[in-house]
């Protein structure tokens, strides 16, 4: 029997460049099916649900919806709130009152956990509805998925940034340390490797949360590269940890700021970059050492997007509706690489990925733990999308010296 | 009588996204004139000259040259060295030995000063040659010019970054402080204003080196915006100064690092952003306050370029050759806005801009000194180039509440 009622869409966690594509995919697909009577959007994720802050997306024009789909960040706004059981009880009161039978929540592993709790609560309450999680995270840290919407565009940004920085440092020499997002998974930091065009291009070193960070090894690595190439470009994850597993940045910040999920805030401060800069300056006596923390520039930058990412985010949203209507179970839409390059969308039980973190697999990290492997580069390449800009060098030969004043 | 001999091209100072367009413009144009017998490139600016580190650009293929023209950063590498009289005497020995009669130096006001010294030295030495300065700087701080190649692309990057950040902060609330390059001139920091699409979009506040920065006023401004909009996005120049004219960042850095021109290094550290973040957190009790220092990401980002900027950088290079051949004086190629939007390239005596700094004119800054005027937005708009991405919002109406649990 067909489940007839309203659909509700919400967006949770950190925004991405393509999260609105998933929302537009849900709306577009839902409009084609009579059993979905209306499509609501909750403003600010689960917060918007308990506060009944809904907008009627049924009344959104197609053209504007398409423009919003191409706009980065969460058009429905977001939240860091993680519902407990009581919070979920409030959610159900609202869902029932509004006759909402389909719930689509676009988010990361914390949001998947929310969908899972809501789904379980619905069963306990004997309330018939479908709760579907649609993946989204620039960190690419969702289990089961080959990769997640949002990652590929952020990776493209990181790649384009490091391409320019590599040329900048090559022109003026010195050491550059770029701090990239990635609390526990190094996928985004590792994507800087795609900037390596010529064999001696940076990033020459990459440090990930998956391997212990030992500052003496880091300094020795930088020295080696600097002596070889005359400059050194480094990509460092904000989440690098000491051998005990404690994040380096934690010992740096006197007042540790935690979000509602108990996560330490790592972005929005230049402290880690400044620490590493200081270490290189003091120990190697290199005067030109620079660091930037990519921070919030990297996840929603307007106009730097992977078209593959856009397409997949859209399809994930469309598939969510298809699964909700044709499957009689709740779950998460997951992306699976089944060809080179082809993906497939499947329905996965929420318990398999909710609240869990995927890390970089061992074969993506080199033996020294300071760079990636070609296997990772092969994994990343198709995700970055088409029309990827590249860099070139002059090839003109040297002119013989005449005076040789300085030789 | 025609001056016959070789041409030498060099690039100085910080790189830009279009500096190689100017180089390609010189090469392309020079190849059309027999009196220029060969075209050399000096590696690492004036350093490359005294060390005779030349490459023979005459042997560069057209296709590769075009690819390099589209590659950001200085393909001939750069230098921060500023020649004194002795340094210039060494330069002349080399110029004479290689029969170089045309010298094209692409750079900012320090490079213009170098060209000026070299030009004067040539007259003293009675050595017949042409020394031409081609403008380049993301800071847009060259006198006489309406604007300079390199600025428009960096401005486009800053605009696209703030567009994304505005949406990010709008989705999750809080205060964001973006530190943008600009030691003494606020043009680049001010370009964030182009990100304002809807009237309540950020950046809501902009602080420039042209106005004294008083931290109490800054905190009060942030509070006012935050109460009005629920979030606040701020663009701050790295070069903001206290009422005595001393840069805020100087008092923050124990060991002040200066480059060869006596300039304090302001980029490559998150210290200023962290200071302002701390002030807002402590005084306003707002928990979510984030800061990023744009640093080196902004000036050579691969794939974010203004086509207007590309064209003008190219034309500046081409005009440099034309002026060198048809005028019998040295000078700087300057860009003048003569229509809406049309520019003209002129030859300006080096003394008029060498070593000097252009600031934001008063009518580009609002009365409160915390934002720009529409006059500035009108000035900036045509420079950003075509196909500028924009942002959109959902327009769906609110759904009436049923339970009103929380009201």
UniProtKB/TrEMBL annotation, chains A, B:
It comes from the Bacteria. PANTHER family: ATP-DEPENDENT 6-PHOSPHOFRUCTOKINASE 1. Its EC number is 2.7.1.90. This is Pyrophosphate--fructose 6-phosphate 1-phosphotransferase. It catalyses: beta-D-fructose 6-phosphate + diphosphate = beta-D-fructose 1,6-bisphosphate + phosphate + H(+). Pathway: Carbohydrate degradation; glycolysis; D-glyceraldehyde 3-phosphate and glycerone phosphate from D-glucose: step 3/4. Catalyzes the phosphorylation of D-fructose 6-phosphate, the first committing step of glycolysis. Uses inorganic phosphate (PPi) as phosphoryl donor instead of ATP like common ATP-dependent phosphofructokinases (ATP-PFKs), which renders the reaction reversible, and can thus function both in glycolysis and gluconeogenesis. Consistently, PPi-PFK can replace the enzymes of both the forward (ATP-PFK) and reverse (fructose-bisphosphatase (FBPase)) reactions. Belongs to the phosphofructokinase type A (PFKA) family. PPi-dependent PFK group II subfamily. Clade 'B2' sub-subfamily. It is found in: Cytoplasm. InterPro entries: ATP_PFK (IPR022953), PFKA (IPR050929), Phosphofructokinase_dom (IPR000023), PKF_sf (IPR035966), PPi-PFK (IPR011404). The record marks 110 as: Important for catalytic activity and substrate specificity. Gene3D superfamilies: 3.40.50.450, Phosphofructokinase domain. It comes from Pelosinus baikalensis. Homodimer. Its cofactor is Mg(2+). The record marks 136 as: Important for catalytic activity. The keyword rRNA processing does not apply.
């Amino acid at each position: 029997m067909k489940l007839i009622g309203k659909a509700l869409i919400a967006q949770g966690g950190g925004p991405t460049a393509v999260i609105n594509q998933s929302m537009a995919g849900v709306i577009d697909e839902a409009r084609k099916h009579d059993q979905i009577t209306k499509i609501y959007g909750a403003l600010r994720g689960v917060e918007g649900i308990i506060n009944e802050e809904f907008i009627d997306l049924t009344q959104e024009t197609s053209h504007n919806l398409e423009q919003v789909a191409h706009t980065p960040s969460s058009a429905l706004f977001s939240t860091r709130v993680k519902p407990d059981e009581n919070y979920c009880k409030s959610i159900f009161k609202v869902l029932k009152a509004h006759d909402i039978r389909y719930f689509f929540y676009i988010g990361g592993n914390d949001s998947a956990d929310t969908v899972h709790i809501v789904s379980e609560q619905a069963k306990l309450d004997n309330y018939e509805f479908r709760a579907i999680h649609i993946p989204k995270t620039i960190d690419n840290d969702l289990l089961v998925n080959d990769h997640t919407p949002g990652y590929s565009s952020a990776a493209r940004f990181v790649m384009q940034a490091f391409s320019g920085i590599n040329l900048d440092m090559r022109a003026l020499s010195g050491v550059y340390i770029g701090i990239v997002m990635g609390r526990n998974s190094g996928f985004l930091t590792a994507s800087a490797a795609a900037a390596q065009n010529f064999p001696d291009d940076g990033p020459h070193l990459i440090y990930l949360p998956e391997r212990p960070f030992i500052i003496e090894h880091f300094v020795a690595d930088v020295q080696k590269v600097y002596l070889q190439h005359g400059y050194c470009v480094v990509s460092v994850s904000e989440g690098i940890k000491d051998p005990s597993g404690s994040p380096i940045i934690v010992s740096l910040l006197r007042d540790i700021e935690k979000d509602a999920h108990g996560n330490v805030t790592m972005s929005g401060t230049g402290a880690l970059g400044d620490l590493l800069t200081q270490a290189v300056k003091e120990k190697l006596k290199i005067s030109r050492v620079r660091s930037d923390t990519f921070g919030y520039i990297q996840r929603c930058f307007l106009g730097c997007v992977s078209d593959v990412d856009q397409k997949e985010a859209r399809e994930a949203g469309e598939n969510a509706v298809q699964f909700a209507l044709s499957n009689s179970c709740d779950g998460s839409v997951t992306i699976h690489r089944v060809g080179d390059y082809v993906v497939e969308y499947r329905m996965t039980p929420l318990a398999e990925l909710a609240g869990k973190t995927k890390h970089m697999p061992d074969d993506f990290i080199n033996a020294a733990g300071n760079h990636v492997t070609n296997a990772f580069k092969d994994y990343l390449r198709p995700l970055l999308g088409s029309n990827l800009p590249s860099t070139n060098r002059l090839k003109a030969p040297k002119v013989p010296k005449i005076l040789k004043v300085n030789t």
